[in-house]
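PROTEIN DESIGN WORKSHEET
SECTION A - STRUCTURE
LENGTH: 594
TOKENS:
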């Protein structure tokens, strides 16, 4: 590989459309699976941390050192020449994107005489204004899982944010590694403090770093985890790394920190103290005796093994992003547990102190208990983590109650008796409390308070089910009454029709009278509730009957007329012309014999 081809190549890059991190096979092929690296132990060294903090700048310093070493060393390797390599720049805009791998591996001779190759990995600034939290976490987790040495770059001194983010990344890395069946702890994690401003308290360099780290691990300076919870810094870092170190770097001087647009990174432009400590840092970090070769399944990490690890992590990372919430939940639960334990400790210490000196009367003991309990409660109030875990659990328990109640009293009925409702409530409360008790954090006063709040809430839910049951009952009663009315109206209609049939074929006045009598009898049968339905039906019954009666009457008349006509014609035939001019009357009509 020619020197001019050396460059940063994306190892994992965010897809511009979906934002998903994609492994770049071309980089694997070109670097990790090259003849030079495939079977050679590799030591990836990554720098991660917030954006605009000189990460790429520093990698170029490491690159310069490693190049000088592989060229035989000697002289001042931190040349007074513009700093080149990984793209870097001043200003406030985030610069590096994705995870970038330096294309040329740099050979180092390990303490045991083996040759290994250092792979420098640059990373996108985490938790900046252009990265999503998922991108930041996944990127940093990947860098940690791949690296033999991970430098976590922080400014001035770690803040609670840094710790929270580190915890989240470490927890996510743990989930990702366990899904991929890979070890999750980075062999060596270096907390690199830039712009350390208190050299009078702790000197620059590894020694000052070691002191201050001891102080921080004991919980000094950082009062809480940023989420109101006590932190267990040592445990948090222990989750992320097998070995934790710290190095304090001074401020680089005004030119480097953005004061000079012509700043090129040349040694002469740096504050002398900074240049000195930079040299020290590179030599300390890359001291071959302390460079760990990561092992996977008991075998040293080679280029090919790293490529396989990248593929496996990529495959699982693509599916894992939703578990970022799982990581956050796990951390919240852990923080909550710690908060509850702290509250319990506060309670027992207070009680022990009070009882150690003298034996207390029952009344005095009760008083001390109340005071200790109140103090412990206050500790928990300041630790929303504890509340949030139990609150989420109470939420789930209340949902468990609700589904048990819905099984006993389905939304669309039927309603149940009051006794049955009380039995269902008692069973659902037992199920909900069992759910809460099996998952709650500790038995402290806050958890008890949340348990009794949950009981109150379940009673409130019962009131809702009572109202619902009463409404169902009303609906059912209304439906039953409507059915009774329908049956009564049907009986009344049959009765009317039977009565009218029995009355026979009547002419109009008699028909009207018969209708009135039958309608009155039907109305009595239908009852008050059926009147409205019945009266419309009855009104429609009379008219067709009247028409039929009129039709019958007309037909009868026509029949009689035809009969009379026939009789007349017979009479004419018998009597002859003598009877011409005689008129006879049938009904209202007159007939003349002509
Ligand atoms: N204050 C300060 N600035 C530094 C230090 N080292 C380098 N810089 C300056 O920080 C600026 C950004 O440098 P980069 O190396 O591009 O920073 P980065 O962290 O890689 O930034 P992103 O790629 O955007 O995440 C440059 O102007 C550097 O000169 C340092 O120790 N302290
Ligand atoms: Mg950068």
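SECTION B - SEQUENCE
RESIDUE ASSIGNMENT:
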């Amino acid at each position: 590989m020619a020197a001019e081809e050396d460059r940063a190549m994306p190892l994992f890059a965010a897809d511009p459309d979906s934002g998903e991190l994609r492994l770049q096979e071309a980089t694997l092929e070109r670097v990790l699976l090259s003849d030079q690296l495939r079977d050679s132990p590799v030591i990836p060294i990554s720098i991660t941390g917030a954006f605009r903090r000189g990460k790429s700048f520093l990698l170029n310093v490491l690159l310069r050192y490693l190049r000088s070493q592989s060229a035989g060393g000697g002289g001042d390797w931190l040349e007074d020449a513009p700093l080149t390599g990984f793209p870097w720049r001043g200003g406030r805009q985030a610069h590096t994107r994705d995870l970038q791998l330096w294309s040329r591996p740099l050979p180092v001779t390990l303490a045991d005489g083996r040759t290994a190759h250092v792979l420098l990995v640059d990373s996108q600034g985490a938790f900046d204004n252009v990265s999503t939290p998922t991108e930041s976490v996944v990127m940093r987790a990947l860098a940690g899982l791949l690296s033999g040495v991970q430098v976590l770059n922080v400014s001035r001194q770690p803040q609670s944010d840094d710790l929270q983010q580190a915890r989240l990344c470490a927890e996510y890395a743990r989930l990702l590694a366990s899904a991929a069946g890979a070890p999750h702890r980075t062999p060596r994690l270096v907390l690199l403090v830039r712009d350390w401003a208190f050299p009078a308290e702790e000197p620059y360099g590894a020694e000052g770093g070691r002191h201050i780290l001891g102080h921080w691990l004991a919980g000094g300076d950082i009062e809480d985890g940023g989420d109101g919870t006590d932190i267990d810094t040592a445990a948090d870092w222990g989750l992320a790394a097998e070995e934790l170190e710290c190095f304090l770097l001074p401020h680089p001087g005004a030119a480097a920190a953005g004061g000079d647009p012509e700043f090129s990174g040349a040694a002469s432009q740096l504050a002398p103290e900074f240049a000195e400590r930079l040299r020290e840092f590179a030599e300390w970090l890359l001291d071959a005796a302390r460079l760990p070769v990561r092992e996977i399944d008991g075998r040293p990490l080679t280029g090919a093994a790293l490529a396989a690890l990248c593929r496996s992590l990529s495959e699982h990372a693509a599916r894992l992003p939703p578990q970022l919430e799982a990581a956050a939940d796990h951390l919240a639960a852990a923080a909550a547990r710690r908060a509850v334990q702290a509250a319990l400790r506060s309670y027992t210490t207070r009680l022990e102190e009070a009882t150690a000196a003298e034996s207390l009367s029952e009344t005095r003991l009760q008083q001390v208990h109340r005071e200790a309990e109140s103090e412990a409660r206050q500790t928990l109030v300041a630790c929303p983590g504890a509340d949030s875990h139990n609150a989420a659990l109470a939420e789930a328990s209340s949902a468990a109650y609700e589904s048990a109640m819905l099984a006993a009293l389905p939304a669309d009925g039927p309603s149940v008796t009051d006794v049955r409702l009380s039995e269902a409530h008692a069973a659902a409360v037992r199920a909900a409390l069992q759910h809460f008790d099996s998952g709650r954090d500790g038995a402290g006063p806050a958890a008890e308070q949340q348990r009794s709040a949950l009981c109150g809430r379940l009673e409130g839910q019962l009131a809702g089910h009572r109202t619902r049951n009463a409404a169902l009952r009303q609906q059912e009663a209304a439906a039953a009454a409507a059915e009774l009315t329908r049956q009564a109206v049907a009986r009344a209609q049959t009765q009317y029709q039977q009565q009218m049939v029995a009355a026979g074929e009547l002419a109009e006045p008699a028909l009207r009278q018969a209708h009135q009598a039958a309608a009155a009898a039907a109305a009595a049968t239908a009852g008050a509730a059926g009147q409205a339905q019945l009266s419309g039906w009855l009104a429609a019954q009379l008219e067709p009957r009247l028409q039929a009666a009129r039709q019958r009457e007309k037909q009868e008349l026509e029949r009689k007329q035809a009969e009379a006509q026939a009789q007349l014609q017979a009479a004419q035939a018998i009597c002859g012309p003598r009877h011409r001019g005689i008129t006879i009357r049938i009904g209202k009509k007159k007939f003349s014999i002509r």
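SECTION C - NOTES
The radius of gyration is 48 Å.
The pocket of magnesium ion (ligand 2) is lined by residues 55-56, 88, 95-96, 122 (CB under 6 Å).
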